[in-house]
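Researcher: Please translate sequence to structure tokens.
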Amino acid sequence: MASMVVIATTAVPDSLRGALSRWTIEVLPGIFVGTMSARVRDELWQATSAVVGGGAAMLIHPAANEQGFELSTAGLRRRVPIDLDGLTLMRMVAPQELSLVKDL
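Model: Translation complete:
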């Protein structure tokens, strides 16, 4: 069964934006929305994660959990999802901490 998918990107290669546009609509710069099966979504996300480079991407899709959605991230962002007793919350990472993560 197909479901809606949202992919948000920041500073990714133009080739990735072109690839995402084949399956989705870019409703705002870097925000892609589409409807696809779980298999297509997973393969598209796998390809996105592989080429995100120095940028970042986030995938949001419906799921059977308390919040009704799941999210996945690729690349480094100041907002990092954390799991708190089954709820996904966003944690802000300090710029100094983010630079330490980049150096690893």
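Researcher: Any highlights?
Model: The first strand starts at residue 3 and ends at 10.
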